[in-house]
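Q: My hope is that you can spare some time for a protein that puzzles me. Underneath my words sits a plain record pairing an amino acid chain with its backbone structure tokens. Those tokens are not coordinates but codes from a learned vocabulary of shapes. Thank you; the sequence and its tokens follow:
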Amino acid sequence: MEFAKPNPMSTACSLPESDTGVLPSSQMYLHLPSAFAKKALYYAPYVGHFFCTPAYAISRDNYDYYLLLLVDTGELQVQFNGQTFVAHARDIVFIDCKKPHVYRALTPLSFRYFHFEGSSSEAFYEILTERYGYLMHPAKQIAIESAMNTLVGLAYDGQLNEHKISAQIHIILSELAAQSASAYNPQDTVIAQAISYLEQHFTEVLTVEDLAEVVNLSPFYFSRLFRKFTNMSPHAYQVHLRVTLARQLLASTGQAVERIGEACGFNSTQHFIRSFKQHVGNTPREYRQRTLHTENT
């Protein structure tokens, strides 16, 4: 498990015993907010990036914070406030953890999340959940994804900056509030069908023509529509899924790098190493060594 560097404001913490099914490549950071942050800012006591097996499950009667969770891959079932729903890749779950809640992995799963409070958290929660419900499908994902990545990066920084953390949370909430409730419903679009097909077949050789045929569109129109709703090309989305699976396999198995690249659908070891480093910042071997070192530590 990888932790933030300890300092007076940010403290390393171990995963709760209830967090079974969390792979060692996951990250979780505990931040103890200052009195000023509690009074004037958004603050995030917990920030994490989890990679999970289907054994992952959380059940709580009460937790002091709001939870905003962005699914990267897989399926997450949520039970909250008398509702049961399933979040898929690129969906956002927003719940008030002060009420009883249960969520569990239905498949191998990865997601980024933060628990937060402060500032106008309650007002944003009320307007967003009244407008969208607890499961959200934002049309313009890139700003939200960027802010989530920055938030995780700030949590990792030993000299954590509460003002920058607050700013990223505000960006995420504001982006969600600014989007039309009817702008994007993946359950009613052909893009949802294409994404579902990709998630089931991303290790296979797929062309834009193959995916366009699945949803009965021309390749040109399908490519434009896919990028509009995901801010990614179909090929980039497929590579993202492959790299996420590779991270799980590198962290949880002893398979050779060459075998993992092949299992994830890369056509050569060189292609696998190059793509993995572009997305993660380390080669597969470096990533595995860092994960094992962190776990041993």
Q: What stands out?
A: Confidence is low (pLDDT under 50) at residues 1-12.
